[in-house]
């Protein structure tokens, strides 16, 4: 399987095999199993549905995957690996859920949090030698800035990469030296805005065991239906990601040429665009004027979503006119007509 392309692995990994087996792992809504097998109690060993999903995502990322009830659950499990007093470096602009957990841990005196501008190369290099954990987003959420994390690996700090935006198709952080990869499978992996689920992946067997134990201790286990939906979504991720990326590139270029847009933030790959308007009032009016693009939070679904991130208390430091735009699978020409009309 290692010599198959990611597109093929997304289809083939985690499937049952053998005469009479179903082509797809079914939903297994079980908590308890007969003694003597690989599973005894779902919270501890998982279910066939969870395991199939974890096998498939692990095959794409190149490590051992563990699924959680949500992306925040996966983040919390990673932070739980670090002792009281540990120092965590995190980008100034990053996922609000992660920053919320870090802020709470800092308030309770459990972790020391160091915020670093994504473009501060020297700051990240210093943190690699001084901190216990580098929490990396590349691209960052919601500003879509890139952090060159490969040179940061192999130093004192553990390197954890939230790969939700890029997906395993855009980058594979473990191959670049990261210790752990985190996904909100709620987003692009699931792809249909119908589930909550998180995943961690690591090539380190000890870390994999520790993450599994963290899930068991906290009970942050995925639901049977959610795991099945995420696995079904993963099967089409390569074709969805390719088409949405093409549309995003087209729309980013057109937005950059529009007189109402002051800045376009697009890293060149992926389904996410962020663009800035003159002020909060202008950005809010655009969101309200759209007809096809849905004004809603979250991202990564087949439908296009847009929102002004600074409206949320946890993202009040984000530029007030910034709009985060998750490009869906609609025709890019229809999306552009909707945007152009709203922009005026």
Q: How many DSSP helices?
A: 12
DSSP strand tally: 12
Our Rg estimate from Cα atoms comes to 20 Å
Strands of the widest sheet, in order across it, are 1-7-6-5-4-2-3
The secondary structure category is alpha/beta
Distance between the terminal alpha carbons, to the nearest Å? 50 Å
| Overall body shape | globular
Mean residue pLDDT: 96
How would a textbook summarize the main sheet? Answer: 7 strands, mixed
**Helicity level, as a percent range?**
25-40%
Question: If you had to describe this structure to a student in words, what would you say it looks like?
Answer:
With 344 residues, the chain is α/β, with parallel strands linked by helices. It is 37% helix and 16% strand. It has 12 helices and 12 strands. It has helices at residues 6-12, 42-45, 48-61, 71-79, 96-107, 121-130, 167-170, 205-218, 224-235, 237-256, 280-289, 332-343; strands at residues 64-68, 86-91, 111-116, 133-137, 158-162, 180-184, 198-202, 263-265, 272-276, 294-295, 305-308, 322-326. A 7-stranded mixed beta sheet has the order 1-7-6-5-4-2-3, with helices on both faces. β5 (158-162), α7 and β6 (180-184) form a beta-alpha-beta unit. It starts with 5 loop residues before the first helix and ends with a helix.
Which characteristics define this entry?
344 residues; 7-stranded mixed β-sheet; 12 helices; 5-stranded mixed β-sheet
């Amino acid at each position: 399987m290692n010599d198959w392309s990611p597109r093929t692995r997304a289809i083939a990994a985690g499937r049952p095999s053998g005469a009479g087996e179903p082509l797809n792992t079914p939903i297994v809504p079980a908590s308890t199993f007969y003694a003597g097998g690989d599973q005894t109690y779902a919270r501890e060993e998982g279910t066939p549905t969870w395991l199939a999903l974890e096998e498939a995502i692990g095959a794409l990322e190149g490590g051992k995957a563990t699924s959680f009830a949500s992306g925040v659950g996966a983040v919390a499990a990673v932070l739980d690996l670090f002792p009281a007093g540990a120092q965590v470096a995190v980008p100034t602009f990053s996922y609000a859920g992660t920053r919320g957990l870090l802020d709470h841990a800092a308030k309770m005196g459990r972790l020391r949090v160091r915020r670093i501008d994504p473009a501060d190369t020297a700051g990240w290099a210093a943190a690699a030698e001084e901190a216990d954990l580098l929490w990396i987003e590349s691209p960052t959420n919601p500003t879509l800035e890139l952090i060159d994390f490969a040179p940061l690996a192999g130093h004192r700090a553990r390197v954890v990469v939230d790969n939700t935006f890029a997906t395993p198709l855009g980058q594979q952080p473990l191959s670049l030296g990261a210790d752990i990869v985190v996904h909100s499978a709620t987003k692009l992996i699931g792809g249909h805005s119908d589930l909550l689920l998180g995943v961690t992946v690591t090539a380190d067997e000890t870390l994999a065991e520790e993450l599994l134990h963290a899930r068991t201790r906290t009970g942050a286990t995925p639901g049977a239906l959610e795991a099945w939906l995420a696995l079904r979504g993963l099967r089409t991720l390569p074709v969805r990601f390719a088409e949405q990326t093409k549309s995003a590139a087209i729309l980013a270029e057109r937005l950059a040429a529009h007189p109402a847009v002051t800045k376009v933030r697009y890293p060149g790959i992926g389904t996410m665009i962020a663009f800035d308007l003159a002020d909060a009032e202008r950005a809010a009016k655009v969101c309200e004027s759209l007809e096809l693009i849905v004004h809603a939070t979250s991202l990564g679904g087949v439908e296009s979503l847009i929102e002004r991130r600074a409206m949320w208390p946890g993202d009040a430091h984000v530029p007030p006119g910034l709009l985060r735009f998750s490009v869906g699978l609609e025709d890019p020409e229809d999306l552009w007509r909707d945007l152009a009309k709203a922009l005026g």
